[in-house]
# Entry
Amino acid sequence: MSPDRRRFLGWGAAAAAGAALAPAFRLIELAQARSPEEAASALQRWGLLIDITKCADCDVCVTACHEENGVTGHGRPETDAQWIRQVRLRDKRTGYAQTLPLMCQHCEHPPCVDVCPTGASFRRADGIVLVDKHTCIGCRYCVMACPYGARSFIHEAVSGQKADVPRGKGMVESCTLCVHRVDRGETPACVEACNRDGGKAMVFGDLNDPSAEIYRRLRSEPSTQVRADLALNTGVRYQGL
# Structure
């Protein structure tokens, strides 16, 4: 093969590769193209306080979460994605039972991040734990590492996606605290729905802001972390547990 032909084929291959990769690179650019005002700041730490004494065995928060994020079921609870679910706890000694919503706990020291081989699982500076869909390879190490069973693997092809919430078959996902809403200055969908249609059991806010209701309540009222013995310093706290 002549040198000219080799150069021509090399340029053609490079151009084809660039065209194939361009959409993915463009998506990454769009995801990173946030103004400085919107960038996550370590001065904040977003958190959620849930008073389960006000949870009235409803599923308002679950429905709102799944509608907001385009999470649909396929009639197979054992494999369907669940970003938030209702868990029933029962004291074996007394028979006393409680129901609480359980989702990603947005740990300060998240085990899912520690075990991820590609860095797809990561924690933002403001405490929100996310999955980068561009680098997730679906290995499910994070699913096994999460002590709260909060992560789901997408088994089926996804359709009807929401513009703010990319999802895809073969990826892992979990509660994002509705990060797309938070970055717009709004509250997560579960909190909005609970305070509108449910028992007003959820409070969302900045754990570092003395003017925030969640800050004041955590310092004046008792609260509990699920599996506090793991010392993960969760961003989700419970009252009445």
Observations:
- The first helix runs from residue 3 to 32.
- The chain has two domains: 1-33, 46-239.
- DSSP finds seven helices and nine strands in the chain.
- The radius of gyration is 21 Å.
